[in-house]
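User: two proteins, same treatment. go.

Assistant:
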Amino acid sequence: MTPVRRLVTFVDLDEQADDDTISVSARHEVEFADGSRALILNDRGWAESGPPNMWAHRSAQDIVSTARMVVGPDEPPTGVSYEQMEADHWAQLAEALRRQEVVVDALELKQLPHDVLLSERLLARLGHDPRNVGLG
């Protein structure tokens, strides 16, 4: 099996996004050394509404930071430590991959680099030229 290289979260505009509403989806994947990928989470995203032209108050880095938070690990509920919540999170991601016949240890997943990639539509909405944006 090809070794895993990194985690990648792809963020794109949702259809309901408009000037006064930020609405995006996030797809979380693992990328292998050969460039192929396996889906881990496809049910993430967030929405914000507020003052007119919400997008003028958001940067690409804001979106990247929120995307990293949205794909986890989540904040623990009362009575559960952050360490346990984090361990459970990585174990769940490893199990999601195992169901796809990708065997990777939870600790290995945790140590992978995590890149967040914004779609060209999203970058354009944020006022960035997609050809000239460098995000980590």
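Protein 2:
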Amino acid sequence: MFSIISLDQKDEWNEIIRSMNRYDFYHLNEYHLLENSGRSLLLYFSSDETRIVLPVVLRRIEGTEYNDITSVYGYAGPLSNRENPDTQAISEFQKHLIFFFEENNIVSAFSRLHPFFENQKLILSDLGEVINTNQTVGIDLSLPVNEQKWQYSSSLKKQLNHFKQKNIIVKNAESREEIDIFIEIYNESMKRVNAPEMYFFSKDYFYTFMENLPSSLFLAYYNDEIISGSLFTMCNGIVQIHLSAVKDKFLHLSPLKLVWDCIRIYSDEQNAKWLHLGGGVGGMDDDLFQFKTRFSDLRFIFKTWRYIHNETVYNRLVSGKYPEKIPQSSYFPIYRF
């Protein structure tokens, strides 16, 4: 059986997701409600013993009769109720997926995959390609607390000790006013690093996110002033650092390090299994990635799935946008670059 679950079928969507072997908040209906680049759908396949789902965002290719598929911001990808779904079920799921692509004039499909879920590559095998993009950083919260902190770099340990002397404290945000201040700091941070438009969000995005998803906002205070913060989620044993920011004039204090350390301590107290710090911007080995490596030696592989369903139209779209020379870029699909 193959069915298409829409966003307005919230209960059914989430019931299916929670029946999977593993999942994260990126797969939930409430997170897809925040997506505005296209129409979110949950593609659901079930056989006698195996169930497979793939959350997607269906986008119109402007000026054409065609569409393409992408994923929400973050780490989504397919899920199954079995850690190792059988090859027959995978084959049947892929046949239904291809038929869906045909029925909806899909040119290409792209999805960021979840670094923790190894079976995603198996589910997508022989359908396009799964590419190892880069690494992400995580902390195994099943380790004793002293072993978790033992992996911190020596410079990070020293700085954490200095925070006590500077009277910097971390609190869990409890008011709309605190959220608004964090939003201001976040926007300031994104402007500072010249972040692309996709990294800017409306105030309603933050409010809705915190109201409807399993999330918390930790804020660093210095002399009663909010100087930094991180919005994070805790879902199915996995803690994800979602959005973080530091006020420009307090960059020299590096307060985000204390915020993340407090998130680790809190997550451990809540019996979470993993704290995922993520990778660099766009999966790059950049300053952000290096900052995260100071917290842990544990690495995961960040993968992306790329599939061209209609190669003729794909090539036509690419040559139409770049009639003289196609840019050298790993961006996919290149016609949206």
